[in-house]
């Protein structure tokens, strides 16, 4: 998506790398339901197409398709990165050309897990999103959708997802568009959450939400008050 | 406060190190209004007593006094650390004996500021709270009150502060008591937020709330949904 032209998400193709995982599939489901054009990406094109077929059946949408991650990156206007952290760099590095000039939405949480639960992993670049920005210098990298519950996204009986979605980035046009994308999920508000250099704590805060979920037996989200 | 005995915050003396700063004074004001015994600490005992006198006048409380930080640490049951980050280690290190066995509530946000606003500072221990735990091995260290707006706390016209307060720590009795302390502020819910090793991102998230405040001209807080 070229800078400067004001577009609505309705006109765009939304690609989801790692779209067969829980978070990617949940987001794709909501966007498909909202009538957006969605491409599901996976390392394995057949798996991606099978996920896309499931989504078409579940939503009645005819604007969902699957392809391998490189194909999705090439054919999408906005590309959501929802791969596991340990596949993050290896997925993005070869896609630099395909993702040039495009809005990239990094959802990845660099977390470790042990007997005491999840914890923040150190990332040399500061965060997954800043690693994406370093690997994709010609892309417009934002960070978002870290906290929204995959369980609630995927549950068709949940009409409204009760959470705000923070959108971080240094490019106002890009963060505004991603906020609009967030708000295609019923119940969600898209809230600007700061510059990309402050993405690390937003990613890591997912560990706290997991702790809250365990303590309170919840699918916790966050709302920003006074906004 | 010795471990094992179940106490209510109403029976305890709450000390606030750095109680003459904005965050400390705002918390002390709300706790004084709620009828708790509060000790205001400062490097300068005269400044602490002058702040305490202001709080007595503002709240009608006769259970607020001031002293130097060491005196407050010695005489309090629960000790809130609300000093600036650059005074954090130097304030706590000499108070190890005074704080032994007590619940310590670290509110400190290690942030830097430049032209682009606030950003997370690297802390060798991982967070201010973990630094406190390293310096105070005999204390029961928790982390809390990072996000609550000092402006709203200090404003007597604000009847209810619309926010949840996350309380982190590895000692269930301590985090439960600090949650109770949070809930003495009208409008506030105290929510368990995870182990101390996950405090860094909660502290640093204050940078994101400052960015939100600037963008939306707000005094932002957070609510945890589905809890």
Automatic annotation (TrEMBL), chains A, B:
It comes from the Bacteria. InterPro entries: NAD(P)-bd_dom_sf (IPR036291), NpdG (IPR010185), P5C_Rdtase_cat_N (IPR028939), STEAP_metalloreductase (IPR051267). One of its GO terms (cellular component) is plasma membrane. Pfam families: F420_oxidored (PF03807). Keywords: Oxidoreductase. GO terms for biological process: copper ion import; NADPH regeneration. GO terms for molecular function: coenzyme F420 binding; cupric reductase (NADH) activity; ferric-chelate reductase (NADPH) activity; NADP binding; oxidoreductase activity, acting on NAD(P)H. Residues 13-110 form the Pyrroline-5-carboxylate reductase catalytic N-terminal domain. PANTHER family: DUDULIN-RELATED, F420-DEPENDENT NADP REDUCTASE. This is Reduced coenzyme F420:NADP oxidoreductase. It comes from Streptoalloteichus hindustanus. The lineage of its organism: Bacteria, Bacillati, Actinomycetota, Actinomycetes, Pseudonocardiales.
């Amino acid at each position: 998506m070229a800078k400067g032209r004001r577009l609505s998400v309705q006109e765009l193709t939304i690609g989801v790398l790692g779209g067969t995982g829980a978070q990617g599939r949940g987001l794709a489901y909501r966007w498909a339901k909202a009538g957006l054009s969605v491409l599901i990406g996976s390392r394995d094109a057949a798996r991606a197409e099978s996920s896309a077929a499931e989504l078409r059946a579940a939503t009645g949408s005819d604007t969902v398709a699957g392809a391998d991650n490189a194909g999705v990156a090439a054919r999408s206007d906005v590309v959501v990165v929802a791969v596991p952290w340990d596949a993050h760099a290896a997925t993005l590095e070869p896609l630099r050309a395909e993702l040039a000039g495009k809005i990239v939405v990094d959802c990845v949480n660099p977390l470790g897990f042990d007997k005491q639960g999840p914890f923040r992993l150190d990332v040399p670049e500061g965060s997954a999103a800043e690693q994406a920005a370093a690997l994709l210098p010609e892309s417009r990298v934002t960070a978002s959708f870290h906290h929204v519950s995959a369980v609630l996204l995927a549950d068709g009986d949940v009409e409204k997802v009760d959470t705000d979605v923070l959108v971080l980035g240094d490019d106002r046009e890009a963060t505004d568009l991603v906020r609009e994308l967030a708000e295609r999920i019923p119940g969600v508000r898209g809230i600007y959450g700061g510059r990309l250099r402050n993405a690390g704590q937003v990613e890591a805060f997912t560990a706290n939400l997991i702790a809250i979920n365990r303590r309170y037996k919840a699918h916790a989200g966050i709302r920003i008050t006074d906004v």
